[in-house]
Design goal:
5-stranded antiparallel beta sheet, 3-stranded antiparallel beta sheet, 14 helices, 12 strands, globular, ATP binding
């Protein structure tokens, strides 16, 4: 049974009324998560899901006006790139889960651009949400927010688009403790001011985090845990070439979990590719985390007079954790593991830094357009690195030569021979097929768009997802990630 997260204060939640959508169906359900939440005792889980979560704020046809109504709760949060909204503009909480794509909520602001006001989500988009929740759950150290089910609403707006609701896990985010300074409500809802809302959340910060950071009683200890988890999550994603695209304080949980996957993609190369306007490219995704840490701690210091924390200290902690985690992760390319107590720590660190430098050479300039395997403007790939090291094809003053010497030194400690080790590792690399194109942004959307034409989406998508997870686990096994 999954342990439920502590609730946000009521001042962070805005109630709104929804109407039942007749004719909705369960496109897909997550049987593993149903079991984890202790819902597997329900005889007809599809009916239970529809009775609880097939609701919308949109005007429904006359036959639906007499149907059941249900109250959901929109989450108020701040942070970067909210487009004038005051939090969740198309999502509502009910019980242990959140419904994304429920229609416009009271938190859509008066200055929010039209394309952010619909409150809807396509079936393709929500199945993509489910897929990436499972992939990141499998591949990343702190996982992701997972979907319990995807509810197909059909053509609810009488257009060609097929809409859906993702019933997903609740997750507290750093944004829940930050201001949304540009939010102006559209209606006459009597909302508590942003300042008082944030103060109420920050006053309960330790309690809200208690179910995740057990034993970390102080605010400082909890923050230490948060920055460490963020660093571990981003470093692993960097190694695996998983670009979230929009790592803002509302798109990563305080647990380190990723959520909201509209801009996520695998990349074919270690380049600074941007998948979202206004956000840093892949090689600098951590900059948004630094911005979040600064803003979050400055807000805490303002509202908690018993606290005086240096934001620069926590930024430094995050940067140090992130650098250390990247070094640990990138050394795994050659099958190496080390600890801070290792007598060859400086050798491992130099090797890892050189691997990263080698793989990112020529890729620092920000660019748009997701690359396919070994394509792009970078100078080197893992294939070329293994090839040069296996053939000893390098100059004495090259990065490859420096890596060659470090690998020999590390292997000498355990009595292993360089040429045989590199040959075996190169074979394992080729057998593992580290081509990440199966998670390419365009490919996934094309495949899902075809899939939803099926008469049995659940079966087809479940098999599709299972294959993606198998490939992801094989890649994770190679890196021992």
């Amino acid at each position: 049974m999954i342990e439920k997260m502590s609730n946000l204060p009521t001042t962070s939640l805005v109630p709104f009324v929804t109407s039942k959508v007749n004719g909705a169906s369960v496109a897909w359900k997550n049987l593993d998560l149903i079991r984890d939440y202790g819902l597997d005792h329900i005889d007809d889980i599809d009916t239970w899901l529809l009775d609880n979560y097939s609701f919308s704020t949109l005007p429904v046809d006359e036959s639906n006006q007499q149907a059941d109504q249900s109250t959901f709760y929109a989450e108020r949060y701040g942070g970067q790139l909210l487009a004038g909204n005051g939090g969740g503009g198309r999502a509502g909480l009910k019980g242990d889960f959140q419904c994304k794509g429920i229609g416009p909520t009271p938190l859509i602001g008066s200055i929010t651009p039209d394309h952010y006001r619909t409150g809807m989500a396509s079936l393709t988009e929500m199945l993509n949400e489910a897929l990436w929740g499972e992939v990141c759950h499998a591949m990343l150290p702190h996982g992701a927010v997972r979907c319990l089910a995807i509810i197909d609403l059909g053509n609810i707006l009488d257009d060609e688009e097929r809409y859906a609701i993702a019933v997903r896990e609740n997750e507290v985010r750093m944004g829940h403790f930050e201001l949304s300074p540009y939010f102006e409500p559209r209606g006459n809802e009597p909302l508590l001011s942003e300042s008082l809302r944030v103060k109420a959340a920050i006053d309960q910060f330790e309690e809200i985090c208690s179910s995740i950071y057990t034993g970390s009683g102080t605010l400082e200890a909890i923050l230490d845990g948060i920055v460490k988890r963020f660093a571990e999550q981003l470093a692993c994603a960097r190694l695996l070439r998983i670009c979230h695209g929009s790592i803002t304080s509302s798109n990563i949980g305080i647990s380190g979990k990723y959520l909201d996957f509209g801009t996520i993609s695998s990349l074919g190369s270690y380049e600074n590719i941007s998948t979202s306007l206004g956000n840093p490219g892949f090689l600098y995704e951590q900059r948004n985390i630094v911005s979040s840490i600064n803003g979050f701690i400055d807000t805490i210091n303002w509202y908690r007079k018993d606290i005086n924390i240096s934001s620069s200290d926590y930024v430094e902690k995050f940067n140090k954790h992130f650098e250390n985690q990247c070094q640990l992760r990138f050394s795994s390319i050659f099958g190496f593991e080390y600890t801070e107590q290792s007598p060859l720590r400086s050798t491992y660190e130099r090797l890892s830094k050189n691997i990263y430098r080698y793989l990112t050479m020529g890729g620092a300039k920000e660019k748009y357009g997701v690359t396919y395997h070994n394509e792009g403007g970078g100078f080197h790939t893992l294939d070329t690195l293994f090839g040069k090291l296996a053939d000893r094809d390098f100059d004495s003053d090259s990065l490859e030569h420096s890596m060659f010497l470090d690998i020999k030194e590390i292997l000498a400690e355990s009595g292993e021979e360089y040429d045989e080790y590199i040959r075996q590792k190169f074979c394992f690399y080729n057998e593992s097929n580290l081509n990440m194109d199966y998670l390419h942004y365009d490919l996934i959307r094309q495949e899902i768009s075809e899939m939803i034409k099926s008469d049995n989406i659940h079966s087809v998508f479940s098999e599709y997802l299972e294959n993606k997870i198998k490939r992801s686990n094989k890649i994770k096994e190679y890196y021992n990630a």
